[in-house]
Amino acid sequence: TRFTIDVPAARPDERLSLVTYTRPSRPRPEITVSLRVNGQEAVPAIRQQPLGLPTHELLYVTLGSDLPGLRQALGRGPDPAENVGCLTAVEQMPEHWFGYGGVDLLILTTSNRDFLVALGAGRDERMRRRRAALAEWVERGGRLLVSVGRNVQLLDDLADWQELWPVELEGTVSVPLLRPRWRGGRSELLEALANRRPGPALEPAPVEIARFRLKPERSPTVWMQTADDAPHPLIVAAPFGLGRVTVVALEMDQAPFTDWPAQAEFWRKLLPEAGPFRPIRDRGDAAVGPTASKGAAPDWWGLIDTDLQTFDTIPVVRFGWVAAWVLAYILLIGPLDLVIVKYLLRRPELTWVTFPLMVAVVSLATYLAASWLKGSQRRVNKIDLIDIDLERNAVFGQTWLTLFNPRAERQTIGLEPVSPAWGLTTSEKPAAALVSWWGDASAGSEGWSRGQGLFRQPYDYETHGAHGNLRTDGEPIGLRGVPVPIWSTKSVTGCWRSQLGPGQQLLRAELERRGDGDRGNRLRGKILSRLPITLDAAFLIDAGPADIEVYELGELAPGEAREVSGRAVPLFRWLRDTAEALGGTDAAPGEPRAPAALGRHFWHILWDEAAASLGGRTTRRRDHATRHLDQSWRLRYHREEALLFGWARAVPEDAAPSRLWLGAVPTEGPRPPLSAELRQEVFVRAFVPVRRGP
Known about the structure:
Layout: E1 31-33, E2 36-37, E3 40-41, E4 46-48, E5 58-63, H1 68-76, E6 82-87, E7 105-109, H2 113-119, H3 125-139, E8 143-147, H4 152-156, E9 167-175, E10 180-182, E11 188-189, E12 207-214, E13 221-226, E14 233-240, E15 243-248, H5 263-274, H6 300-308, H7 319-344, H8 351-374, E16 378-389, E17 394-405, E18 409-416, E19 434-437, E20 460-462, E21 478-484, E22 488-499, E23 507-513, E24 523-529, E25 535-543, E26 548-556, E27 561-564, E28 569-570, H9 571-583, H10 608-615, H11 633-637, E29 641-648, E30 659-662, E31 676-692
Parallel strand pairs: 5-6, 5-7, 7-8, 8-15, 16-31, 23-31
Antiparallel strand pairs: 1-4, 2-3, 9-12, 10-11, 10-13, 13-14, 14-15, 16-17, 17-22, 18-21, 18-30, 19-22, 20-21, 23-24, 24-27, 25-26, 25-29, 26-28, 29-31
Helix pairs in contact: 1-5, 7-8
């Protein structure tokens, strides 16, 4: 694939630092960078093969300065598949949010004053884009850890980052001895932190920490605080959109923290809370996949890829028929041809005519049979996931689709966000959907499947075009010149974000958490659907007093309201029942088997962390590219919200939240007719605030 960015005009002898992007399909791709002026290469192209990471490994990136203590702590840990990178210059920061796509945890340090001053350059448009890119990445599911210390005022001056923080930054405070107490799960007192380096008067210098005031509207969680009569928060975390922000009141790259004997223990406790799900793989269980041994995580992404490439209207030819056809072909061009030319025609030299004729006839018959079986109709399988943040009044959409093409051609593929059928009004001009290829990580450490074969045909990301009613912002809004061979498939993914206008709501909820002792009746309230589609099944998932509990709401149509009442079921039972409902099981003995849902495996990756914690699974998921899809971590940390989850299995084209474009991208005027057989399902997930009742 080719990704193109515009290069600003430069003065003579001026040096420019530019960041461009690519999406490699394997850990060691061949990347070519070229500079073109008027279509001609201005300088010789640069070709490199950088060493990337397998999809199952973790990547932590520090921003501002390096963290040697983090590297040492990971080096002592039981899992070698954790890596640390470092960006020490603001010019290295991406100007688009997807530039952080491979990062599992971004750690911003604030001890480098020059870095913060450069980052806060208010009149620099490129710096503004860099700050906006980081914030948008977090909002779309990224995880940010911020180390705050003596330069807290410089961080507080970054006005466009203020909504990120779950706390108000109120300067610093000095303490002679810091006694941190960890509050996660069970209260645990860590070794005291003291400044071992003497001050000006040769007495021990105090420990300087940032002073926080919690933002109650963000429902923050305090993971660590001082063990004092008036405890001071040291680690505070809260969701931001689909992501999570964790703020630490210590400079983790400076003394006295770097001299602290409990530093490694601190990192081992902090990383699982601030970063991604980190189960440790059993050394004796290397298999990861649907057939892995007991305790291993299934390869959900490989199963999803198989589901999307399975078209029910295209019959699958059994191997027996293929073997019989090959055997008949061998008999025809071999013994039968010999009998015809030698014994019937008695002219062996005619084999120069009969042999190619038989080959041509059999090839034509094979082509006609395949055309009859596969048909001449394009087919599309499509899954949409819609996340609704009721607090921020924002909607996040993600799409995965597979296109089956009955003829060989090059396609232009785009995705239109916020379909007109949903009737959404936005407070700003909506951004176009970011579109890219996708495949499953079944190749493990070798990278993604979807190889181009021996004769690779490159295609381009479309980053420009007539803007129309959408903002492109220089992001890839489509794919041009995508080669799709005859009777083959191409898989594409897209994501978008929309900020709803005033008074525009897709759901209304009034939920209250009661303080009585009845375990199954703690949550009460009502939910009103304003979705343009009917959810075949809807559920409300809540963190109960002893377990995650699920309330069944049944079918939820537009304009209908449901009371949250009755006794909830445990999460593990709901996971089992949902797998049966979407997997196509028999309704009763002797009745026909119901068809399996297109998303029968997709929904699993939305609850993988919760399911793993219930089942005690120790094997990590192979593909960490799906980590942002799993929001079940919110149930463990944030009791001030519940999750509404539902699906619609048969959504017509004109009612889907996003629309596929073939032959053009959404910024190029009217949408071409989609002459394809479309099967699509929609999953909806909403983050519903919960009030505390009597």
